[in-house]
Amino acid sequence: MTSKATQLYADAHPVAQSDEKDSAWIKSKRYWYWISVILPAAPLISSYFAIETGYGILLWFTVALMYAILPFIDRIVGLDSSNPSDELVDKLKDDRYYVYIMYLATAMHWVSLVGMAYVVSHFEWSWISILGGALSAGIVNGVALVAGHEMGHKVNDKAQVTCAKLILACSGYGHFFIEHNKGHHRHVATPEDPASSKMGETIYKFVKREIPGAFKRAWELEAERLHRMGKSEWSLSNEIIQPALVTVTAYTLMTAYFGPIMIPFLAIAAAFGWWQLTCANYVEHYGLLRQKDDKGRYERCQPHHSWNSNHKASNLILLHLQRHSDHHAHPTRPYQVLRDFEDVPVLPSGYPWMFFISMIPPVWFSVMNPKVIEWAEGDMNKVNLDADVRDEMFKRYHNPKVAA
Amino acid sequence: MAKYECPDCGCIYDEDIGAEHEGYPAGTKWEDIPDEFPCPDCFVREKPDFELVEN
């Protein structure tokens, strides 16, 4: 038996767009994607001005960029109405140009991290400025995870997988592409998924099951794969150990050359990078639940099991990750051809602002809980609910509309 | 040797080639692949979803 919501969205289709104006925009995006190469340099550029002017506070620039400037730009620039037509998808999807941009981004992310490590260790800064520098590097580490996510899905392309491992290693999160492809995509929008948030769960509670749960799942999946090959998980074939070695080597070298300040700097930059991913996981499927069929199996992940945002500016920076329904429908589809869908749950803003409000639980709940209720048509049985607040939530919100 | 295709991403499981990286060496017969085997490319479809394309 399929739920009404399922039937309603089962044939959800992308918003058809292929007129000339839109094609022109899609083609010009080709150049806009260079932002993935330039953005990692933001902390370095602000460092230059901090050094020139002596205002250490400028090291906070990238944090302000993320939580204040980008939400503002998102608001001004608005939504991206264009979807590539089928012909354009065919043309763009195999164009290596878009992959080369990701390779350049990989290099830039390492330049940025090492550059910031140099900046905080070679000049006189107050601790508050150093904190700003570390958090700025953390924001960029978060952006690196988006590029790592993009390349990590292309498992049949060895070069892309290698670059995914390298870029994820910036923040020591190399297990992500295993956990995400084989774990999250399979269990998404179920209570069993540590990377799907539940209604009523604050982000601070979510992170405690997300980070350890994701690591555990990645390790188990990788161990299973290696055992099938007759290998031990404690070998260099382990694709969690490979990027971890890159991280350990790079962090050790930086600490040796740049001094003990690297210990708090790298720890904060890595942790804040992880936090960006936690925010993404928190936002992307909040409260959404796949229904079970008669045999107790979850229905397939459908377009209405992901929150979407079609904001132009943040989608360029985040490689269309916010067109999340299409991503879950077709996980290997490259970023340049992800499409917007009709009739899918929509976030009120792009990720940068949503990440910000996710950190203030009362605001998050007041914005998102009504949206989840509306999505579930008042039926709390259809919601992925935090067990601790289940009774309270039922009492407060359960009011299923009688099916017409 | 038979070939099976993932209905989502079009990935082909060719018995001649196997899915080496996932621990199924070349020559692994389709019947020896477990039911919970996910598509080795997109990972969101499983063995029962695959369609025979060449026998």
State the gist of this model.
The complex is a heterodimer of chains A (404) and B (55). With 404 residues, chain A is mainly α.
Low-confidence stretches of chain B: none
Query: Which overall shape of chain B is indicated by the principal axes computed on the Cα atoms?
Result: globular
Widest sheet, order of strands of chain B: 2-1-3
Note the overall shape of chain A. Answer: globular
Oligomer: heterodimer
How many DSSP H or I helices of chain A?
18
What can be said about the biggest beta sheet of chain B?
Answer: 3 strands, antiparallel
Any key phrases for this structure?
heterodimer, A: 404 residues, mainly alpha, globular, disordered N terminus, B: 55 residues, mainly beta, three-stranded antiparallel sheet, 3 strands, 0% helix
Write the topology of this structure.
The complex is a heterodimer of chains A (404) and B (55).
Chain A: H1 4-10, H2 20-32, H3 35-38, H4 42-53, H5 61-77, H6 86-93, H7 97-122, H8 127-152, H9 158-168, H10 176-187, H11 203-228, H12 241-258, H13 262-284, H14 312-317, H15 324-329, H16 351-358, H17 361-375, H18 390-397
Helix pairs in contact in A: 4-7, 5-8, 5-16, 7-8, 7-9, 8-9, 8-10, 8-13, 10-11, 11-13, 13-16
Chain B: E1 3-5, E2 12-14, E3 51-54
Antiparallel strand pairs in B: 1-2, 1-3
